[in-house]
Request: fold
Amino acid sequence: MGGVDWTVQGSLVERVSSWIEADAKRDATVREWQRLENELMKKCRSRGLDFTYACRSGLAEARAMRVLGKQIKAADRHLEISAGQMSLVTVATPVDALAKIRLALRVQGRYDWRPHALELLEGGVATLEVVLGRDG
Reply:
């Protein structure tokens, strides 16, 4: 996950774009970890190895999975902290409100509610309502 700048400053739109890019890289890393896990499972079946033992072994797939696992955990921490910080940003323009909503939808994903998603959505919607002159 090298190359991700976690200290992005600038507009909320820039920060959200950077967050979404980092999240996509994290997702790609997870998919690579899963591919390696499948390869390790195949190797275990063909050699009669215990999968738990194999995960702790020096097999190439296991070593790579451990490296990727650390990268995923670090990315998860940074993404959550960054989303939390952006959820606290007060926005006053429709563009920033849309950025906040865009981030909230990405944070939320398709499944269980995740930290900060609701706050980001509510903040973005509230700003749009004020700017557009609508009552909540």
DSSP finds five helices and no strands in the chain. Confidence is low (pLDDT under 50) at residues 1-8. Residues 12-47 form the longest helix (36 residues). The two ends are 41 Å apart (CA to CA).
